[in-house]
DNA sequence: AAAGAAGCCAACCGCCCTTAT
DNA sequence: AATAAGGGCGGTTGGCTTCTT
């Protein structure tokens, strides 16, 4: 009944990853691609939970990740997206090529939050702190005249006016009506029922040039490594990363990444995991 | 130079939805 | 249909680094 357990908790290592562990994980994924994470620790010779391997890969080892602080443009985009999506970091990260949800979440909590508060803006509601209670009908973005929210202003009519970011039921005042609207949280798990989410996640959102999400020439399809992607594509992307960060030479040869690929041996019974 | 405070971020935790059996 | 694991996600934590006194 059901599936086999992800990993036996006994003997599973926790805490920071060592260079050796990273090497093993990279080595394994380079050879076999991203397959069933449950099988990865065993096959790669790691005493880690599959979940831990997945996180390590997606948040740190992935070759297409950008490094360093978010640029001003990226930060601006995060703020704009957060105003619409709330704390749905994975959705926000999907719009920022090379950035992870964890990275964006951390950046938000450590930098952006404080910045917005300093500017007198509630980082949760994106409304001016001093106006939230006293004058809820006033357009918060016009009131502040903040460049940060120019994009939001332009689209207030385009998207549902009940756009809020609170995780609880929220009270929204529309611009043309004093009617108080009790709306369900935007963070409804079923995005198909959410017209705002549908719009944001639709192609038309990206095609709407006035959002100015990315400069011309950027390609969203470049982001991420789908499981179905030809492994050779991202394998090539890995070249610089592997050489710079791990001092790994002769990328592309049979003998890559320090230890020989022959070190990764798939038991017959386990080969089915990675098809 | 040392100690404590604050900042930062990688990694873990736990929940929820999906999917395999 | 029921059950249980897989996978994804957001929230939180803990330890390392940097700053301040």
Overview of this protein structure:
The structure is a single chain. The chain has 275 residues and is an all-alpha fold. The protein has two domains: 19-61 and 231-273, no CATH class; 72-212, no CATH class. The chain is built from eleven helices and two strands; from the N terminus they run H-H-H-H-H-H-H-H-E-E-H-H-H. The protein has helices at 19-32, 40-44, 50-61, 72-85, 89-93, 101-118, 140-144, 150-154, 195-201, 203-207, 231-246, and strands at 170-173, 180-183. It has a two-stranded antiparallel sheet. The longest helix has 18 residues, at 101-118. The protein is elongated. The two termini are 23 Å apart. Residues 1-8, 133-197 and 205-275 have low confidence and may be disordered. The protein binds a DNA duplex (21 and 21 nucleotides) through helix 3 and helix 6.
